[in-house]
Structures are given as C-alpha cells and as structure tokens.
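Section handout, structural biology tutorial.
Before the tutorial, make sure you can parse a SMILES string by hand: atoms, branches in parentheses, ring closures as digits. In the record below the ligand is zinc ion, and the chain has 286 residues. In the tutorial you will relate the predicted structure tokens back to the input. Do not try to memorize them.
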Amino acid sequence: MPELPEVEIVKKSLIKKIKSRKIKRVIIRNSNLRFKLKKNFRKKLENNIINNIFRISKYIVLELNNKSYCVFHLGMSGTIHLVYKKKNNITNTSFYSSPFLPKKHNHLEFIFDKIKMIYNDPRRFGFFLIFKGRDSLKKYFLKLGPEPTSKSFDIKYVKKYLKNRNKNIKNILLDQRFVSGLGNIYVNEILFYSKLSPLKAGCKLKHKEIKNLIKFSKKTITKAIKKGGSSIQNFTNTSGTKGHFQNSFKVYNQEQEKCRSAYCDGTIVKLFISNRSTFFCKKCQK
Ligand SMILES: [Zn+2]
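Predicted structure of the complex:
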C-alpha cells in the first residue's frame, strides 16, 4: 500500500512532468474504481491546464485552470505511470521497478502533448474525484487530522486528544481524523522507536511518552521521504532505483528477528490488531 512518503514522491514527479501542461484527452477504460467515475469526468478535465499539483495527506490534488480540482488516492495497489509517447510504453520516468507499463489494469489515461499519465490499479481501491471550487475541496478534507510533520501535531494537540481514549495507541495513530497520512508500516516503526507497546491504551501515555511519540512520528516520516519511500510492492523512486527505506525497517516484517534496540535481547513478535499485521518487541516496548 502506498504510504505518505511514496505519495509525496509521486507528487514531486508529477510536478516535474505534467505541471502547467494541458490535458488534451482523457481515456477511461474502466470507470469502476472504488467510487464509480462521474459521467462528466472527462468533460471536466479535457482542455484544461494543470496549474498546480499538491498533496493533502495521501491524496494528490491537480488544480485546474477552470477552478476545479481533480483529487486522487492510490488505494491499496494504485500506481501512476508517466509514459513518453515515442518510447513505446517504457515508463522510465515513473517510480516503479518495472521499466514497462503493465499490460493489464490501466484504467485511466490523461494525455498531454508528449506524455501520458496512466493510472494502473489491479485491486481498484483507488479513486478519482472532482471538486468545483476551493470551498468544496476544503470541505472534503475537513475531517482529516494534521499531518505528522506539521506544526499543529504538537504536545498540546496530542495530549488533549489522548486524554480520554481507551483505544490502543496503534489504532489511534492509524485513525486519519487524529493524524493524517500514517499507514500500518510506519506506525509499527514509530511505536518501536518510541518504545511503546501497540496495545497500550492512548489515555495511559505519560507526558514523556507522548513527547517521544511526536518526535519519532516526525522523524520517521521525514527520513522515509528523504530515502525515497519504502519500496513496498514495486515502489521505486524517480530515478528508477528502488526506494531503500525498507532496508532499514526495525520491526516491520521482522518477525522472530532479534530486537534492534541497544541492550535489548528481546525477539520481534507478530500479531494482528484490527486485522492489521503488528510487529513489536514485548521486552522494550511497554
Ligand atoms: Zn526490544
């Protein structure tokens, strides 16, 4: 599943390749994504220039010159491919390990002058929406909490939020209304660095523990963006090499490995919390 750092890198690549370009044509091969594409989807996009591209949490927003916003989310398995028309489907400008465009599941095509942006998604949990005007865009994102790297994700905010929450801290961190953009992989890592058990109730966290949690949330995400994403499922950075954050996972997928904390002789265990794989060291994560 693409996580926030991957989405950030996709955004950066799109800025390089398609910002300020006109969408000449849109080809819809399958409109049955997570939400069925609206009937006027093509019409709203075609012949418009992409004035700006930005990211809100794990959503990418294309701002058009007709004051509409095309918002998309990659879901579980969505990938964006940038293909130069002349180069026979070689996606050397994309971020995925295969240098070729996949043969199946290319549901959407945005055609620009010399380049095409293709949306591929085998599981079709991703989606595209269009909003008219900034207010309706804002309204859609109103429920999202701050991003881990934003200033408003601070001790005051987190402390207040956790005060009466009996839910375990792992599920709280995955709740996008509390903090937006953290997915399962990074939450496992953040809890390891913070020395917190994923099963601990949110309201049981002490002041110092909350401070650590905030610090490592910011650090982990910033570091992952720098390293070019986690390389989970084919993900590679813009230069075509795999992201190498996964080489430095401390607990994620490290079941039965020795704990990597200094002076800890524990072993990483795996269990499921709300159906999501959870990895941690019982000895040093309390
Ligand atoms: Zn340990």
